[in-house]
Amino acid sequence: MTLLEVRNLEVTYGGGAAAVRGVDLSLAAGRKLGVAGESGCGKSTLALALLRLLPSGTRVGGEILLDGEDVLTMRWGRVRAVRWAGASIVFQGAMHSLNAVHRVGDQIAEPILLHRKAATAAVARKRTGELLEHVGLPASRASAYPHELSGGQRQRVMIAMALACDPRLVIADEPTTALDVMIQAQILRLIGQLVTEQDVGLVMISHDLSVLADTCDRLAVMYAGRVVEEGPAREVYEDALHPYARALSAAFPRVGDPTSRFAPRGLPGDPPDPSDLPSGCVFHPRCAAALETCASRDPESRDAGGDRRAACVHVEPTDARSGTP
Ligand SMILES: Nc1ncnc2c1ncn2[C@@H]1O[C@H](COP(=O)(O)OP(=O)(O)OP(=O)(O)O)[C@@H](O)[C@H]1O
């Protein structure tokens, strides 16, 4: 059953240019979708839009159906009810997301008390202890302040908080960026394991395609506000169809994988400024495979077969392959 369906999402910050341009995504209950792309391609904007967390004055169009209900047209009372309980978000850098002057246990208990009207302080405390143990911390750490925990422990607290109200969807925006590599791997394993155990859907955002390929079932690669390729995680990572997705895979080879075909390589040039997008395919100025037509033709996202889609002139649509007119 479809848990999340994003249709033609457009986000434009006040007075600026579109940061997300016509994004379509879907996620089945209990599955894990990775969203990758370079800095500025619109990943965080997409994450914030899913929970209506964008600053006021931002124009948002399209549909975001969570269990069939459009988040974008909900009344604010309903949006508040959906946050934490329907969908929750783990941000990068837990030090900034946790309140420095409150004990972490009280911060985990807060959404429980808010959303479960019948929950007493004692019930919330008990649940907080269980959640902390669930994410690999002793229940006694509930009385700690954020500065008394390591970066990895704080991120575990954020994950406990995100799971506190048994959401159907967890959105994790660069959840391990501020952590060292060993702790990153632990936290990613933990998120993957918890969403599988609890049948929660996961949207995980990262610039690192190799991390997402290891954690997620499906991958969407964004460039300049659009999804340029989407498909089964392993196939997109190992055999991308879109030249940008290929370049991103090459930039993030799997650490320590002797069979990796790729040497780490940067992608030349920078992503375009949303207020000054190139004509045609917006990736063409950086694309090693660009044809003359790419400067004037903006390719639609095409069904490439095998549950894959990509927006590139080089991608042969399935109907063409099968000879269907
Ligand atoms: N509050 C804001 N007001 C105006 N423009 C914004 C705002 N937040 C982001 N943008 C712009 O929207 C575009 C997309 O930014 P976004 O943060 O979504 O990208 P990202 O892929 O998440 O990048 P990063 O990985 O660096 O977080 C960028 O051009 C950015 O400058």
TrEMBL record:
Residues 296-310 have a biased composition (Basic and acidic residues). Residues 259-279, 296-325 are annotated as: Disordered. It holds the Pfam family oligo_HPY. GO terms for molecular function: ATP binding; ATP hydrolysis activity. Gene3D superfamilies: P-loop containing nucleotide triphosphate hydrolases. InterPro entries: AAA+_ATPase, ABC_Ni/Peptide_Import, ABC_transporter-like_ATP-bd, ABC_transporter-like_CS, Oligopep_ABC_C, P-loop_NTPase. Keywords: ATP-binding, Cell membrane, Membrane, Nucleotide-binding, Transport. The keyword Nucleotide-binding applies. Its main location: membrane. GO terms for cellular component: plasma membrane. It is found in: Cell membrane. GO terms for biological process: peptide transport. Residues 4-249 form the ABC transporter domain. It is a peripheral membrane protein. Belongs to the ABC transporter superfamily. PANTHER family: DIPEPTIDE TRANSPORT ATP-BINDING PROTEIN DPPD, OLIGOPEPTIDE TRANSPORT ATP-BINDING PROTEIN APPD. This is ABC transporter ATP-binding protein. The lineage of its organism: Bacteria, Bacillati, Actinomycetota, Actinomycetes, Kitasatosporales.
